[in-house]
Design goal:
This protein has about 140 residues and is mainly α. The chain is about 75% helix and about 0% strand.
């Protein structure tokens, strides 16, 4: 018979392995592109991406599925409940970054590069980075 701590340890181990796999995938993707964004560049993107998500969520021309997906992402980010609590050093915020990257890629690919470009509040370089993260091509 398994005890509660064995179950908790198994869940924690599984989450840790999943998180490490996602970090590895993001690291490999970053290395594939010459002149990839630095951590400083990525941190500067955060406010622009938040405004982009808000604008895409409010756009009635987008499908309801995309808008629901973005709303769920915003609720997750505002929620005090996380996969890994934010008070855990490094890992606490890394899981949020991974969730945002996955959700942003999913939603922007379904919304299309035109919608992302139409609602992008930041610099052209930031737009290029977001489109590359989403796997979209610029139409301009």
């Amino acid at each position: 018979m398994t005890t509660w701590w064995e179950v908790a340890l198994g869940v924690f181990g599984g989450l840790l392995v999943l998180w490490l796999a996602l970090v590895l995938v993001l690291w490999i993707e970053q290395r594939r592109h010459a002149g990839g964004a630095s951590l400083r560049d990525l941190l500067r993107l955060a406010p622009d991406v938040a405004r982009l998500l808000k604008r895409l969520t409010a756009d009635p021309t987008l499908s309801i599925g995309v808008r629901i997906w973005l709303t769920v992402l915003l609720v997750y980010l505002l929620s005090p409940i996380d996969v890994i609590p934010d008070f855990v050093p490094v890992l606490g915020y890394a899981d949020d970054a991974i969730v945002v990257a996955i959700a942003l890629r999913f939603a922007t690919r379904r919304a299309g590069s035109d919608a992302v470009q139409r609602h992008w509040p930041g610099t052209p370089e930031g737009l290029t980075a977001v489109l590359r993260l989403a796997g979209l091509k610029s139409s301009a």
